[in-house]
Design a protein that fits this description.
Elements (H helix, E strand, L loop, with lengths): L17 H6 L7 E2 L2 E2 L1 E2 L10 H14 L9 H21 L7 E4 L2 H16 L5 E5 L8 H10 L2 E5 L9 H7 L4 E7 L11 H10 L4 E4 L11 H4 L3 E5 L10 E5 L1 H6 L10 E4 L4 E3 L13 H17 L1 H19 L5 E3 L9 E6 L4 H10 L2 E2 L1 E3 L4 H6 L5 E5 L6 H19 L1
Parallel strand pairs: 3-15, 5-6, 5-7, 7-8, 8-9
Antiparallel strand pairs: 1-2, 4-10, 9-10, 11-12, 13-14, 14-17, 16-17
Bound molecules: ligand C6P.
C-alpha cells in the first residue's frame, strides 16, 4: 500500500468510539500468557497505530534516501517528508517557525542539548539552576553534570505530600543568580500537573528562561508553546504514539540562535576548512549527522493521528478512566495512592502494604496486565515519599473501563496471594 497523505487515513473521529480507536492499534490484539493484553504502561511508551507503522514502512518502501544532500528525486522526496514532519511538530505545539523545532532522539537528548549548549556557557560558580523534586532523572542528571562542569548550584523546589509543586518555596528560591528553571509539565511518577503558567510568569519577571519537560504532558495536555510562553519544550515521539528514537526540542528562535551547536558533523555546517567552520542555519545547526528520517515521518503520522481525534477527546476519556480507577482502588485494603494532586492526569501510582511493587507487576503480568513497577527513573522523588518504588498504571486513549476492572481484579488477587 502506498501512503502519501496520512491525513486521509483517519476519518473525523468525533463519531468514533474507543473500540474504533483500539482497532487502530494492532498490538492490542496480542495475547500475553494466554490472556488478552491489558496495556497500562503508557507512561513508559505508547503503542503505535497502524498509520504510524504504515508511514515508516511506506518511507522505507518508496522513499528511502538521505536528506538535504542529494539532487536526485528520492533524496528530494525524503527531504520533503522529513521537513513536512517538522512542520507538523510546529503546528502541533503552535511554535512560530520551523526554525524553532530541532529533531532529537527524545526528551533526554533535548534536555542535554539545552544543558550543554544554553546553560554551560552562561553558568559560573555564583549561579544556580532550579528544578523540582518530582523530576525524572533526565531532568536532573544533565543539570548535575553542567553544575559539576561550572561550579553552579542545583536548587530543588520541594513537593507537598500530595505531590504538588510548592510554588511559595519556588518564589523564595529563585533569585538574581538563577540562570534557568527546568521543570516537568506532568510528573511521570505521580501524575501531578505542574503550575507551569505561574512558574513561567514568575521566572520571566526575574528574567529567567524556563524549560518544560513535556515527555508525559505531550500526549495528555494540549501544548501551545506560544500561549505558555515557555523558552524550551522537550518531548519524545514514542510517548505520543510515534516511533522510538525521535523527539523534538522547541526553543525560542533568539535563544537557539545565540547557542553554539551541541554536536559537530555533517549537515550542521555551511562551510568547512581545516581552519574553521561556519555553522548552518537553525534548526540544522543542532542536527549533526544523518537524522532519524523514518522516525520523524512516523512522528508526523502520530501527530496527525492525535490531531484527528483531538486532545480534548483523549483527555476527557483518560480523565474518566483515572477517576474510575481511583474510585475502585481506593476500596482495596492496604492500597495507598502516591500522588493525589488536585491537578492530575492519566497516572495512578500506588503501593500495597507489605507487597513489593515488583511482585505486584509480576503477578499482574501473569494475567496479561502490563504496568510499571519501581522508581520510574525518579529516585529522589521516591526518597521524598520514603519509598523504594511504586506500582504505576498509566492510561491512554485506547484503554477501557473493562481494563481498569481487570487491573482491580488483579490487585485483589495479588492481595490474596500474599495473605497466605
Ligand atoms: N519516562 C517512564 O516510564 P526519553 O527516555 O528521553 O524518551 O524520556 C525521558 C523522560 C523524561 N521526562 C519524563 C517526565 C519522563 O517520563 C521520561 C520517560 C518513562 O516514566 C521511561 S523512564
Amino acid at each position: 500500500m502506498k501512503i502519501d497523505n496520512q491525513e486521509l487515513l483517519h476519518p473525523p473521529i468525533s463519531a468514533r468510539t474507543v473500540e474504533d480507536w483500539r482497532n487502530d492499534f494492532p498490538i492490542l490484539r496480542e495475547t500475553v500468557r494466554g490472556k488478552p493484553l491489558v496495556y497500562l504502561d503508557n507512561a513508559a511508551t505508547t503503542q503505535k497505530p497502524q498509520s504510524v507503522i504504515d508511514a515508516e514502512v511506506a518511507y522505507y518502501t518508496h522513499t528511502n534516501a538521505n536528506v538535504h544532500r542529494g539532487v536526485h528525486t528520492l533524496s528530494q522526496r525524503a527531504t520533503d517528508r522529513y521537513e513536512g514532519a517538522r512542520s507538523k511538530v510546529r503546528r502541533f505545539i503552535n511554535a512560530a517557525d520551523t526554525k524553532e523545532i530541532v529533531f532529537v532522539r527524545g526528551t533526554t537528548e533535548a534536555i542535554n542539548l539545552v544543558a550543554q549548549s544554553y546553560a554551560r556557557p552562561r553558568l559560573t560558580a555564583d549561579d544556580n539552576i532550579i528544578i523540582s523534586a518530582m523530576e525524572h532523572h533526565s531532568n536532573i542528571v544533565p543539570w548535575q553534570m553542567v553544575c559539576a562542569q561550572t561550579g553552579a548550584e542545583l536548587r530543588v523546589v520541594p513537593v507537598n505530600d500530595a505531590g504538588e509543586f510548592e510554588f511559595d518555596v519556588f518564589a523564595k528560591v529563585i533569585g538574581p543568580r538563577t540562570k534557568l528553571v527546568a521543570v516537568t509539565h506532568l510528573s511521570n511518577a505521580l501524575g501531578s500537573i505542574t503550575p507551569v503558567r505561574r512558574i513561567i510568569e514568575l521566572a520571566h519577571s526575574h528574567g529567567v528562561p524556563v524549560l518544560l519537560d513535556g515527555a508525559q504532558a505531550v500526549s495528555h495536555l494540549g501544548i501551545d508553546v506560544r500561549a505558555l510562553d515557555c523558552d524550551f519544550y522537550a518531548f519524545s515521539g514514542h510517548k505520543i504514539f510515534g516511533p522510538t528514537g525521535i523527539g523534538a526540542l522547541y526553543g525560542k528562535e533568539a535563544l537557539l540562535e545565540a547557542m553554539p551547536p551541541y554536536q559537530g558533523g555533517g549537515d550542521m555546517i555551511r562551510s568547512v576548512t581545516f581552519g574553521e567552520t561556519e555553522y548552518n542555519d537553525l534548526p540544522y545547526k543542532f542536527e549533526a549527522g544523518t537524522p532519524n528520517i523514518a522516525g520523524a515521518i512516523g512522528l508526523g503520522a502520530a501527530l496527525d493521528y492525535v490531531s484527528a481525534i483531538g486532545l480534548d477527546a483523549i483527555a476527557a476519556h483518560e480523565r474518566d478512566l483515572l477517576d474510575y480507577a481511583t474510585g475502585l482502588v481506593s476500596d482495596i485494603p492496604g492500597l495507598r495512592i502516591v500522588g493525589t494532586a488536585q491537578e492530575k492526569a492519566s497516572i495512578l501510582s500506588f503501593t500495597l502494604t507489605g507487597i513489593h511493587a515488583h511482585d505486584i507487576g509480576t503477578i499482574l503480568d501473569h494475567g496479561g496486565i502490563a504496568i510499571r513497577a519501581g522508581h520510574h527513573c525518579a529516585m529522589p522523588l521516591m526518597q521524598r515519599f520514603g519509598l523504594s518504588g511504586t506500582a504505576r498504571a498509566s492510561f491512554s486513549l485506547y484503554n477501557t473501563r473493562q481494563e481498569v476492572d481487570a487491573l482491580v481484579a488483579g490487585l485483589h488477587k495479588v492481595r490474596e496471594m500474599f495473605k497466605r
